[in-house]
Amino acid sequence: MNIDEKLGLIFGRRSIRAYTSAEVSQDILQKLLEAAMAAPSAAAKDPWRFVVIRNRQTLDRIAAALPNGQMIAGAGAGIAVCGELEAAHDRQLSYLLQDCSAAIENMLLCAHILGLGACWLGVHPREQRINSLREILSLPASIVPVSCLAIGYPAETKEPRTRFKPEHVHLERW
């Protein structure tokens, strides 16, 4: 595999919002979670926690609770990415969010590599979304919902791309 093919695994990852009815197997979900937990974490605290959702009614409720998140209703599965504040480095919310974001990106890349489509649905810091997910998923008070991922076999294709903008890069100093 040459460098362009390798980088194609990154540039080809796109947000997919339409899915086929094909089931996402438990083995595939396991791989996604393993990829998530291979992410870097501040002081190796691994504060991430995951709720795998396959129940159609639960996915529908999450879709209704997340503006712009309707695609999760048609996904083969959803994964709520949460963090446990007590487990985060120095019990800092910022570290928890960084760690969970790294885990999310690993899952998105893994999904693409495995031929799945996925879309990152923001939850934190929107209080209404946080409270809705807490209620729908019966999350303990100590658990912070960060995002949900809609995951399934894609019913749409998107061309690989880069969003590189040289004007956003500064050399040596601003």
Q: What's the CATH first level?
A: Alpha Beta
The CATH topology name reads: NADH Oxidase
Based on CA inertia axes, which overall geometry fits?
globular
Rg (CA only): 17 Å
| Strand line-up across the major sheet | 1-2-4-3
Determine the structural class based on helices, strands and strand pairing.
alpha+beta
- The secondary-structure element order is HHEHEHEHE
Largest sheet: 4 strands, antiparallel
Kindly report the name of the CATH homologous superfamily. NADH Oxidase
Strand content: 15-25%
Distance between the termini: 36 Å
Residue share in helix: 25-40%
Which regions have little confidence, pLDDT < 50, spanning 5+ residues?
Answer: none
DSSP E strands, number: 4
Tally of discrete structural domains: 1
If classified by CATH, what would the architecture be? 3-Layer(aba) Sandwich
Separate helix tally: 5
Mean pLDDT: 97
